[in-house]
Amino acid sequence: MIEKSWLIPLLPFLGFLVNALGIQQIPKKAAGIIGSTSVLFSFVLSLLVFFELKGSDAGAVTVKLFDWISVGSLHIPFSFYIDPLTCVWLLIITGIGFLIHVYSAGYMHDDEGFGKFFSYLNLFVFFMLLLVMGAGYLIMFIGWEGVGLCSYLLIGFWYKNDAYNDAAKKAFIMNRIGDLGFLLGVFLLIGTFGSTDFTEIFPQAAGFQSGDPRLLAITLCLFIGAVGKSAQLPLYTWLPDAMAGPTPVSALIHAATMVTAGIYMVARSNILYALSPVSMTVVAVTGLATAVFAALIAISQNDIKKVLAYSTVSQLGYMFLALGVGAFTGAVFHVMTHAFFKALLFLGAGSVIHALHNQQDMRRMGGLKKAMPITFATMLLATLAISGIPPFSGFFSKDEILAHAFFHEPLLWVIGFAAALLTAFYMFRMMFLTFWGEFRGTEQEKQHLHESPSTMTIPLIVLAVLSVIGGFLGLPEVMAHQAHLLGAYLAPVFAQSKEVLPAMHVSHSTEWLLMAISVLGVLGSIGIAWSMYVKKKTIPREESVRRTGLMALSYHKFYVDELYEAVVARPLNALSVFFYRIMDIRVIDGLVNGIGKTIVAFSSTLRLWQTGRIGSYLFYMVAGIILIFLLNYLIF
Amino acid sequence: MEETLQTIQSIPLEHYIWFCATLFVIGVIGVLIRRNAIIILMSVELMLNAVNLLLAAFSVHHGDPSGQVFVFFIMAVAAAEVAVGLAIIVMIYRNTGSVDINIMNKLKW
Predict the structure, then answer these.
(1) Where are the alpha helices (DSSP H) in A108-161?
(2) N or C: which end of chain A has fewer CB within 10 A?
(3) Residues in chain A whose beta carbon is closer than 8 A to a beta carbon of chain B?
(4) pLDDT of A226-247, one tens digit each?
(5) pLDDT tens-digit series, residues A395-449
(6) What is the rounded CA–CA span in Å between residue A8 and residue A12?
(7) How much is the pTM?
């Protein structure tokens, strides 16, 4: 089956082709079925591949399809690399992808671009699979760019709205900045190792000294790419804006899969990072800063999807923190649990938005508990999971990261813990504002409140089950001996870097203490949210009310967009105006038009020679002949 | 015949050259300063004949008859040319009542 693994990305691609070529002809129902089943089949194939790889002795299999680039001594084959890490991602992408496809069939039911939407989604799945299956950085890069393209297409899906188009452009441009870093990293890899294949690079890299400057440059460049794609400081501002796209897109691309590509890439390159301590520190600090920063912004957002978007940025920060402190398994674990509960949260939010006819402002919601019981129950489970309440999945993955952070440097744990408190607060703020209290929308909306159709609720239920039990794949050592199934499964992938990095060791009592502190802290945080938004029934202030101090900073997202506007956009604009006015109009136009004008002036003078008087012509002729004779005489 | 040849050869070649050059320059000056088209044509003829004479003189001096063949060619071509030129001038005269070349300036920009 592994040899046939190229079928996994091929199926969604065929789905894309069929839906894209038949946008006008294929009826909505058929488009939805084609789109969903192609991903379902991929999921089944991924499961087969997963079990076959698990059953075989081979730790990893390379499937070579054809020679792609062959220049001089550089040979880049087009091949797939299947190992446990790939399998985890394959299952997440196709599994959650399938659920979101099914959900989309219900959510986008009334949209005129239904077929187009499904073709884009399929194309995205194809590129994402390419990204995680590629056997080298270059194939990863194809997927990397491809998912960026699909993200752009889907954010600007409702292209008649200019604000949405701007959001799409912003995502695209911000990602280009990161991609430049990625590409430079790949060039450095080729220069250093003469190859882009994982199987050739990693064994060679293991022979390098720790702290080698070449590895440092490579890892930093690659990390810039990860910062762009995974929305870390300072390139995160596109992700909240990306919420302009349809909600299933937010769930699939901007929460569960594409944004974790950066995590995948760093985890894949774990040996390179393990050998460059400086890069590890950069990754950890960036991740932690992003986690806190985004959480601080999330606590005062009023758009339900924006809260989730900042929450995603914050959780991605956690994952990078994990990578930075060497907890590669923890990062992958958190990617997985986050994919479950964040996809669920987005889909739940989509369900709410669906019921309220595209109302996204939480100040206009409230009291939806009774009207939408399934959405409410599933979202509550997801919220408990993301807040880190045991035994829901998020608790285990977050705990693993925090324990590693504590072992690495207690200060990292303190900041990470603070971010966890903020997470619990803003997530429950969202829940309380949406589902508790009285309904604050219009009377008309109140009449039309309804639970979503079953195509939408069934994925919610499945994801809710996963969010609840997903954590048991990675029980910490203190709770049960050798029960970290995911860790054991992924061990071969991170074996090399494990030899380089110090082994994590925190005494059991300390670890229990840390867990207790974080659970108590989170419960306290939820309590504060409850007293503010349920007991005192606080409603966030209207747009027009002036906010002061920290509140204003958080509400206005720390003015980062404004900062970029002032620091980057305006000087660039001024520079381009300068170039337009001076360089383009004066210098270049002057040069080009100047040549033309000179020739015109010259010829208008020459024209006067053409008198039409025969006498003068004769004179010129004779003078010319004499001149030629003279020259002849003088020169020869 | 021999005598004639010897008579001609007894005159140094230089004399012919200077004479022909003088005739030629007179022709050139005529072309440049006269305004009557017919006289210009005559001056052209003068230049042609200066060249013809020179060719004949060289031919005799070198004992090579090809120079004289050229003279005949030139005379034939010149006659044809003058026939065309005169015809044009007659037509111009009919239309403008003048053969002054200074009024014939319609070919300008």
Answers:
(1) 114-133, 137-155
(2) C
(3) 607, 610-615, 618-619, 622
(4) 998 888 888 888 888 888 888 8
(5) 888 888 888 888 888 898 999 999 999 999 999 988 888 888 888 877 787 777 8
(6) 8
(7) 0.77
